[in-house]
Amino acid sequence: MEKDLISMINRELIRIKIVQLTYAYYQNGNKNMDTAEKELLFSLSKAYHLYNYLLLLMVALTKEARKHYDVECARAKREGGEMPSDKFAYNKFALQLEENLMLCEFQETQKVTWDDDIEYVRKLYGQIVQSQVYQDYMASSDDSYEADREVWRRIYKDLITDNDDLDALLEEKCIFWNDDKEVVDTFVLKTIKRFDPKTKKNQELLPEYKDEEDKDFARKLFRSTILNADQYQRYMSEASRNWDFSRLAYMDVVIMQIAIAEMMTFPGIPLNVTINEYVDLAKVYSTPKSGGYINGMLDAIARHLSATGVLLKPVPEVRNGRDIRHQQEEKH
Questions:
Q1: Element (H, E) at 130
Q2: Do the beta carbons of residue 12 and residue 219 sit within 8 Å?
Q3: Tens digit of pLDDT for each residue in 290-312?
């Protein structure tokens, strides 16, 4: 899939949001383009909010670790026992994250905190302490920054992604977050790997958008999808005389409509990139057979529009009646 690792809100996430919100737009009886566009941009900003909120979860867990460390130190002094290790409580990566200027600014301006969900933080901290990743880390003599960063990458990957309790908690806070978390998790993991001790508190987090062009991409694609719906559905009909429309799920029509909008509106995006992106989305958001069906339909639509002079883009190469995507899938 097309990837843009420079910003948090990349085109993959934008396409996902537009599929969700276009479907919702047609399900909603009160269709208002301006309201729908505001909801699109708001839902994208909430994805960035979630990115920062999940980074702050690691800070909250570290603060909880320090509380436990302080209690254990006090007990050791009182009872004359062995002093506990401060390795996790003062993990070098976590301390750098806690002091990060961009994250601190986000927390201050958005007034967000995990304090209201401290019981969940404590429960998750308990799961971390019981995990093999934590046990191995504490037993290791490696006290490097790299080891401190790696343990948090593994904790996040093993215990924070695919976490049903966390998913439920986040969904209560924002209706968009349940759909966003899987994508946002990948960006949190990339951010952990990008941290460099030399940058100290000035380490750059991922920006919301790479540039204004990506924000415009979201607006233009959504507007083109809705405003030219009749025309795009006519293209579907013209190009698919040999296809059985009764096989189409309603989501399939929505996905193809957005794909055609992208083909027509953005001359710089190759057709095979657009087709591959929306075939992948169909596999996630529609029926099990939708991916293959939409692949064939979009290929036929692209060739029809190219042949009639409507679309001025190179059409993906076909070999032996099968497009390149089919060949790629057979290799995997």
A1: helix 118-130
A2: no
A3: 898 899 989 999 998 998 888 88
Contacts of residues 269-275 at CB distance under 8 Å and 24 or more positions apart, as own/partner, are: 270/313, 270/314, 271/302, 271/313, 271/314, 271/315, 271/316, 272/316, 272/324, 272/325, 273/2, 274/298, 275/299, 275/302, 275/316, 275/325
Per residue in 134-143, pLDDT (tens digit) is 999 999 999 9
- Look at residue 308 in the predicted model and tell me its pLDDT: 87
- Residues 109-116 have a mean pLDDT of 95
Cα distance between residue 175 and residue 331, in whole Å: 38
What average pLDDT is seen over the chain?
Answer: 89
Token pair 């991922």 is at which residue?
206
What residues does 8 pair with on adjacent strands? none
Closest CA to 51 of 200, 177, 202, 198: 177
Rg (CA), the chain: 24
